[in-house]
Amino acid sequence: MNVQELRSSLLDSFDRFGKALATKEGDWVVKGFIDVYKNIYTISVDTKVVSKIIELMLFPVLSKFAAQHGYRMVLSEHQNHYPDISLVARDETKIALDLKSTYRLDPETVNGFTLGAFTGYFRDRHSNKNVTFKYDDYSAHFVLGVIYSRNPDPADEKKIYSLKNLNDIISVVKDFDFLLQEKWRIASDRPGSGNTKNIGSIRNIKGLIEGKGVFAPHGEKVFDDYWMNYLTADMAKAIDSKVPYHNLSEYMKWRKR
């Protein structure tokens, strides 16, 4: 199975992902945490909590998919290592699969994904640091993205529920959509949120699903070159240099020079 055949098969599995996460009405099947006394505590709408639980729920589905299609599924040993999942074929072909989730800001826009570091293993592609296999060992780098809506009226976090009133708990998120694209196809020309040196994604939902990011018209080589040479202000200062460019338009001018 080649890369595009794998992508096609994963796209066909979206119904399984949906059933793993949501009810027929579109609500998240997860209602809260349960203790040994059968007390149920509601979940915070915190994005890190929601993302981690979604990730854990999709692992069994992806594990079954990998087994059915002749892949060995290797999970990242550490939270900050890339990628979340490595799919290894019988001929040792490796596919990187990162699980990402984000919430809608409005019907057309999401908060966005971070698509991995643009330093470290991304620049030194033979490095073993913070990566399951060497970056260059992967034939493709996919993002399995999950988009959801936050419930504007979540359950009362101060209240303890029981199994008897499980259905009274309001799911904190709902209305899931999925996307599967190579990360260069959905990348932005700006870093992700925060001070971490991560590649940011575009935020338009249609563009994410269809793989129409900033670099899509230019190809993966331009994406690689752009982010391998990108400098933040702090990075430039550390080497007594200037920031060469801030966006793709400036990069094109810089590269011509």
Written overview of the protein:
- The chain is α+β, with helices and mostly antiparallel strands and 257 residues long.
- The protein has one domain: DNA mismatch repair MutH/Restriction endonuclease, type II (ECO RV Endonuclease, Chain A).
- The protein has helices at residues 3-11, 14-21, 47-68, 183-186, 205-210, 220-229, 233-238, 248-256, and strands spanning 32-34, 40-42, 72-75, 85-88, 94-106, 109-110, 114-117, 138-150, 160-161, 173-182, 187-191, 198-201.
- The strands form 3 sheets. Strands 3, 4, 5, 6, 8 and 10 form a 6-stranded mixed β-sheet that branches. A 3-stranded antiparallel β-sheet has the order 1-2-9, with no helix packed on it.
- The longest helix is centred in the N-terminal third of the chain and has 22 residues, at 47-68.
How would you sum up the major sheet? Answer: 6 strands, mixed
User: Per DSSP, what share of the residues sits in E-state strands of 2 or more residues?
Assistant: 25-35%
Number of strands: 12
Count of helical segments? 8
* Helix-and-strand structural type: alpha+beta
What integer value in Å does the Rg equal?
20 Å
Number of domains: 1
Q: N- to C-terminal separation? A: 42 Å
- Order of SSEs: HHEEHEEEEEEEEHEEHHHH
* Helix share, percent: 25-40%
Q: What is the CATH superfamily classification? A: DNA mismatch repair MutH/Restriction endonuclease, type II
